[in-house]
Amino acid sequence: MVPKHSESIIIVGAGCFGISTAYHLLQRGYTNVTVLDRSEKLPAPDAASTDINKIVRTSYSDVFYTQLARDAIQEWNKSDEWGDCYRGSGVLVIGGADDDDSEQPYSSKAYANDVAAGVRTLRFSSRDAAVRAAVFPPDVQIGPWLERASGYVNLDSGWALAARGVEKLMARVLALGGRVIGGKAVTGLVREDGTTTTTTTTTGVRLADGSSMSARLVVIASGSWTASTFRELDLCGNCLSTGQTVATIQLTPDEATRYKDVPVVLDFYTNFYIFPPNDDNVVKLALHGPGVAHYTTGDTDKQPVSTPRTISSHGEDGLRVPRSAVRRLRSSLRDVYPELAEKPFATTRLCWYTDSPDSDWTIGYYPPDSGLLLATSGSGHAYKARKILGFLPVIGRIVADAIEGTLDPAIAQKFAVDRKHTTLDLLRGTLKPVDLATEQLCTPEDLIP
């Protein structure tokens, strides 16, 4: 049963999924929407959506995301709503633009989808001086990757200021009468037995301070903390928390001026990507791969559950990343921008996502509970090179449709909590995350070239 507009809806998590869902529900006339987040400071400093920037791209192997990303970019370009959050730098995709690139099926499909959607693209092959001149400023030193790489430039994509985008949408939620409350850590669900022995209905949430809050509907949008917070739901097969290595480099003002007009570089062969400098002259670079998992065991767990290890849970030590990943980052950076590879990394962090086996979102009611809906498994796509913040303006529309039961049946099944995972993530295949406990974490000395 769809909630009435006056009934209470609690959204757990004030990140991309949660705050966008709150906004779209309020836009549709719902008047009792409350967003709860464990962090006192919002946006939460260790959330995936709280980052200096995220890729916004239409280049996906699944045409659904390509088309939805085009809608999102149209919204991002509304400067009266988003200010300068979005930067249309273009995204250079390495791999996939050859007529038959069997080695990189993901980017091959992404290129075909971009072309079919009318996205402006510029193909290039190795030693392509024309692309070098058209895409990169002449005084930017390019590494040897251009000597051997082929791919295409997506001229209609770019990147967004991540935390600033969440802040702007949060302000709109508050202006529409929604409530966003930080420092309210949800530790579990309040549930009541139904009319049969197989049905249970969620009626609220339990909080860390021992209190509870009731609601007609609870929407879990807690990102990488989902499986470990709500262990009773046994979500490990659908919501795996993985950490991806991110680093930054501080440029001088002169360096930032030279690099400010470069595109995002996204290499689907090595899973390396790098941004142009932001307003603070900071360049972010990262790896997108299987990542790492951090397994912990609760009192009632049948198996360990991967749980984020962040600055909130482990202090400054939570910012350390595997030494092996630091080496990969620097090697890839030297291949693209050799000048920058000689600079120290200023910061590192593990950016934690909730991955699904097929890389599709998990959006739908938790069967057969009519009081509980999941909006998670961003697989990094909601804002970033994988799939969620780029969709910040529109992802809540999908969740609101799921709440109201108006999603196209094929899309509803695509995102269903209990769906069969018949396909794998094309970028990662069968690769599994490494146990973080077995990795040697970096030291400050590792950040110096």
UniProtKB/TrEMBL annotation:
Keyword tags: FAD, Flavoprotein, Oxidoreductase
Ranges of biased composition (kind: Polar residues): 303-313
Top-level taxonomy: Eukaryota, Fungi, Dikarya, Basidiomycota, Agaricomycotina
SUPFAM superfamilies for the chain: FAD-linked reductases, C-terminal domain, FAD/NAD(P)-binding domain
Cofactor: FAD
Residues covered by the FAD dependent oxidoreductase domain: 9-384
Family per similarity comment: Belongs to the MSOX/MTOX family.
Single GO term (MF): flavin adenine dinucleotide binding
Tagged with keyword Oxidoreductase: yes
Protein name: FAD dependent oxidoreductase
